[in-house]
Design brief:
The chain is mainly β. The chain has one domain: Porin. It is about 10% helix and about 70% strand. It contains two helices and 13 strands; from the N terminus they run H-E-E-E-H-E-E-E-E-E-E-E-E-E-E. Strands 2-5-6-8-9-10-11-12 form an eight-stranded antiparallel beta barrel. Strand 5 and strand 6 form a beta hairpin. The longest helix is centred in the N-terminal third of the chain and has 21 residues. It is rod-shaped.
């Protein structure tokens, strides 16, 4: 009887195992991970831009100071000449700016990091002149200094190398901040004249000079903007930059007070111009996009 029960139980177990093996197996569905934002911005780009530039500090300042005084009696002439000479001229450097840019973007989700360099030409530059009449120590005798000054300055070209960091407000709209190196070619010129037209016989006061500074200078820039990907591979931007290339100081000339062949006093004249300003420009870029990764499916 026991042997019969054992045989029946064994057959039941074997039949159940065979039936389970014939049933279809049930697998879990693959886990779906949503794709990251499409990397529309990744890669190199080139473009053009145009806009306007204007000075933050427009003045060219001209100053005079004694460097030789031959005796205490001549000190009032040296210092009154110096006081009559200084002037500030509005040499604004406002105008059109345009050029091109090249850069690279690295997109991480909604965050964008990049680097951009550009080179601009400026159709700008301005000059100004002034004439003043100031008393000498013998003003009571009708002696006056007549001083004329003329200055001009220009920013011949401007370039930048900047980092960019931005956030994608939407997949096609970028807001960014930017900053880095600025460099440019500058030219500043000043002409100076100071005389006493009706000087006492035997005395001659005369100051004449022309100075110029022309060089390449480096500084910094900072700004920001928005850029819109309006077509695949094409974007348009509006951008503001502030740049600072520093001040340039250069000698202009010398004024001397003479009596016959003796030098009674002498003054040095120098000019100082500032190169800092604002830029507002619009541009368009063509993007050589890298291939963005597709959706990720986890397999088990």
């Amino acid at each position: 009887m026991n042997k019969l029960f054992a045989c029946v139980a064994s057959l039941a177990i074997l039949s159940g195992a065979a039936l389970a093996a014939d049933l279809p197996s049930r697998k879990e569905a693959p886990v779906y991970f949503p794709p990251p934002p499409t990397a529309l911005w990744n890669g190199l780009y080139v473009g053009l831009n145009a806009g306007g530039a204007w000075d933050a500090t427009a003045a060219t300042r001209v100053a005079s100071g004694p460097f030789l005084i031959n005796g205490p009696a001549n000190a009032p002439w040296a210092f009154s000449s110096a006081a009559a000479g200084p002037t500030s001229l509005s040499t604004r450097n406002d105008g059109f700016i345009g050029g091109g840019q090249i850069g690279a973007n690295f997109q991480y989700g909604n965050v964008l990091l990049g680097i951009e360099t550009d080179l601009q030409g400026l159709a700008a530059g301005n000059g100004a002149s002034a004439a003043t009449i100031a008393p000498t120590p013998l003003a009571a005798a009708g002696l006056f200094f007549v001083t004329t000054t003329a200055s001009s300055k220009s920013l011949d070209y401007l370039g930048t190398v900047r980092a960019r960091m931005g956030y994608l407000v939407t997949p096609t709209l970028l807001a960014y901040a930017t900053g880095g190196l600025a460099y440019g070619g500058i030219t500043s010129t000043t002409n100076y004249s100071q005389i006493i037209p009706n000087d006492t016989p035997g005395f001659l006061f005369a100051g004449l000079g022309r100075g110029q500074s022309s060089s390449a200078r480096a500084g910094w820039t900072v700004g920001g903007g928005v850029e819109w990907m309006f077509l695949p591979n094409w974007s348009a931007k509006v951008e503001y930059l502030f740049y600072d290339l520093g001040d340039v100081t250069y000698p202009v000339g010398v004024s001397t007070d003479l009596f016959l062949s003796s030098v009674l006093a002498a003054n040095a004249i120098q000019a100082r111009a500032s190169y800092e300003g604002h830029i507002v420009r619009a541009g368009v870029n063509y993007h050589f996009n890298w291939i963005a990764p597709g959706p990720v499916l986890a397999k088990y």
